[in-house]
């Protein structure tokens, strides 16, 4: 296995007496497609929130090892700092700027890589204007990769549902991550949109050379695209392995009792 670009050890998050995440270890290798699954309330989104700085974990370590860059500890960093270190994410519920255009939404993602400070933005000197022009070009380029270039000037709210979800991925990609964390990217998608999403995830890994960790309830999607699957239940990691290993794990079968994981 390549070196882990995301290395989470013993991660714990307590809310009062509830351990929503309980001593979880999870590693994602460079350019790996991995999934985090588990029944409702297992702690998956809380795990993402701890890794991306929304929550400060009550225990454990989150290490980022971006290829060719210095490793760094992410615990306790604010979400914008985590993004600057190369972790980008999408959310379970769509969080776009609905009254902004498709292009503007992606430009906001690019913002974390800007150099011009507040003064530059106020006085709009030559360097700032050049940077703005570059941001527009780069954002357009990202939209092309995601297949949304025909929609650049449309308002986000007017896009079909599947395209809005893709736009969220475009915005995350614009931050130049080494790993993308996707929280239920296929939720609410029709079968064709899910198929397109699968293709997009492969393309991102191949062309952008990034790792992808997704939370997903669609088992046929998870089992067909993941190289490694982590399973949580009641805050704990109960299994991790290849899709084939996971399907055979007695602990996983028990956690999913009555549900079809053999998709
Ligand atoms: N801010 C919070 N305060 C208190 N409890 C919380 C908070 N956030 C999450 N929890 C609790 O932590 C547990 C894990 O929730 P979480 O949303 O992480 O699960 P999940 O695996 O993502 O579920 P789903 O698949 O339904 O999205 C739940 O019992 C939830 O009620």
From TrEMBL:
Cross-referenced PROSITE patterns: ABC_TRANSPORTER_2
GO cellular component, one term: plasma membrane
GO biological process, one term: L-isoleucine import across plasma membrane
The ABC transporter domain, residue ranges: 6-259
Record-linked CDD domains: ABC_Mj1267_LivG_branched
Keywords from the named record: ATP-binding, Nucleotide-binding, Transport
InterPro entries: AAA+_ATPase, ABC_AA/LPS_Transport, ABC_transporter-like_ATP-bd, BCA_ABC_TP_C, P-loop_NTPase
Lineage top rank: taxon: Bacteria
Gene Ontology molecular function terms on file: ATP binding; ATP hydrolysis activity; L-isoleucine transmembrane transporter activity; L-phenylalanine transmembrane transporter activity; L-valine transmembrane transporter activity
Pfam families: ABC_tran, BCA_ABC_TP_C
UniProt keyword Hydrolase, yes or no: no
Protein name in the entry: ABC transporter related protein
Origin species: Sediminispirochaeta smaragdinae (strain DSM 11293 / JCM 15392 / SEBR 4228) (Spirochaeta smaragdinae)
């Amino acid at each position: 296995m390549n070196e882990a670009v995301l290395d989470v050890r013993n991660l714990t998050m307590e809310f009062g007496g509830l351990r929503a995440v309980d001593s979880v270890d999870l590693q994602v290798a460079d350019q790996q497609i991995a999934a985090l699954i588990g029944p409702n309330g297992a702690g998956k989104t809380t795990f993402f929130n701890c890794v991306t700085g929304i929550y400060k974990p009550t225990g454990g370590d989150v290490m980022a090892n971006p290829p060719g860059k210095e490793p760094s500890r992410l615990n306790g960093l604010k979400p914008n700092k985590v993004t600057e270190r190369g972790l980008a994410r999408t959310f379970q519920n769509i969080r776009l700027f609905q009254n902004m255009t498709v292009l503007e939404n992606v430009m906001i993602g690019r913002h974390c890589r800007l150099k011009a400070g507040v003064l530059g933005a106020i006085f709009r000197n030559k360097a700032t204007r050049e940077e703005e022009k570059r941001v527009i070009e780069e954002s357009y380029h990202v939209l092309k990769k995601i297949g949304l270039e025909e929609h650049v000037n449309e308002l986000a709210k007017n896009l079909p549902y599947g395209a809005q979800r893709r736009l969220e991925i475009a915005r995350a990609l614009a931050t130049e991550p080494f790993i993308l964390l996707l929280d239920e990217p296929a939720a609410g998608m029709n079968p064709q949109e899910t198929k397109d999403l699968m293709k997009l995830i492969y393309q991102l890994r191949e062309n952008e050379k990034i790792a992808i960790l997704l939370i997903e309830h669609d088992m046929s999607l998870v089992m067909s695209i993941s190289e490694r699957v982590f399973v949580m239940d009641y805050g704990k990691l109960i299994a991790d392995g290849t899709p084939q290993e996971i399907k055979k794990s007695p602990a996983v079968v028990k956690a999913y009792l009555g549900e079809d994981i053999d998709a």
